[in-house]
Design a protein that fits this description.
mainly alpha, 4 helices
Length: 106
């Protein structure tokens, strides 16, 4: 199936997506932002295009599934860190602006 996706035959993508849908929804819910499921789904598509099947034995689909699942988990960690840093930065900016505005009023 992955080979078909790599050949740009997206008709098989729903079969692959169904395999990882619960995992994607699980991590998307933990990310707490609107487009998290879309970001993880897009990552899955990109991963399918770039995965080197030659690194896996021909009939080791469990290894490939595990690799994809771990990759999705790592992407979750990356998105989580990025989202956390943006929130932290926005909070810092908000505090700075409020402090600056308070200073001007005196």
């Amino acid at each position: 199936l992955i080979e078909k996706v790599k050949e740009q035959d997206m008709s098989v993508f729903p079969l692959i997506f169904d395999e990882f849908k619960r995992l994607i929804n699980f991590y998307a819910a933990k990310l707490h932002y609107e487009d998290a499921a879309s970001d993880l789904t897009l990552f899955l598509i990109e991963l399918l295009y770039t995965i080197r099947l030659s690194k896996f034995e021909d009939d080791e689909s469990d290894d490939i599934k595990r690799y994809i699942a771990v990759s999705i988990k790592n992407k979750y960690f990356s998105l989580s860190a990025n989202h956390f840093n943006k929130e932290k930065y926005n909070d810092w900016i908000h505090i700075f602006v409020n402090h600056y505005q308070t200073s001007i009023n005196y």
